[in-house]
Amino acid sequence: MQRRGFTLLELSLASTLVAVVLTVASVLLYYGMRNWRQLDQTQDASFQLSKACRHLREELRQTSFNECRIDHHGEMGDVVTFLSALDESGGEVLFQPDGSPFWQRNVMYYLIQPPGDTCQVADCSHKRLLRLSLDTGKATNADSDPAVSQEDLLAEPLDKLRADAPVVAVNLKSLTIQLAPDPVAFPDEVKVEVVGERGAQMQFSVFPRNVQ
Fold it and tell me: Residue 144 has what pLDDT?
């Protein structure tokens, strides 16, 4: 018994059907990959924002409102400088015999564009949040000599900025910090806003626990 082969019309229809299936599959794969990348970028942006805000919140809570300073540095935005009583070697907060914080060093948080970045716009979202810990050289050891001089808040912190400070978070757009935006209702409020990639942003307020 002789078998009949496929006709030209049948081959054309089969080829067309296969082409349609492959086209649909390619489109679905493309949009699936694009959505996955967008979701991954959104999650990373949220993670970087959370990391930046967590560090700022924890350290600002331990300082004093009267020992905070805000400066503005061109395209980098706000630079916050404050005194820290944290003994970074031991991980504990040091206090004077009268219970007041024993200020160990100045801490600065600021944004900076990474080396080699070609973005020229002011609202570039590739900035890094850096944390700079500065010790001016004073002997600050409350355990051995409580009368020893403690650190003072820097008068010109912008002169101390460095690009090689430790990185806290990446892919940020702006950092805005206000001291007592409503001085009548909240005279000791530190208000922080961090903006990252893809329009992600976080706002929070800190009321430093130390009053001295």
Answer: 53
Could you tell me which residues come within 8 angstroms of residue 81 by beta carbon, excluding any fewer than 6 positions away? 68, 69, 70, 71, 106, 107, 108, 153, 154, 157
Question: For tokens 């296969």, what's the residue?
Answer: 18
**Cα 78 to Cα 66: distance, rounded to the nearest angstrom:** 18
Question: Bridge-partner residues for 111, per DSSP?
Answer: 129
Buried-exposed string 64-102: b where 16+ CB fall within 10 A, e elsewhere: bbebbbebeeeebbbbbbbbbbbbeeeeeebeeeeeebb
Amino acid at 54: R
Average pLDDT (60-84) is 90
The ranges assigned to domains in the chain are 39-206
Only one residue has tokens 């400070």, namely 165
CA distances from 173 to 42, 119, 142, 143 (A): 14, 12, 39, 42
CA distance 137 to 104: 10
pTM listed for this prediction: 0.77
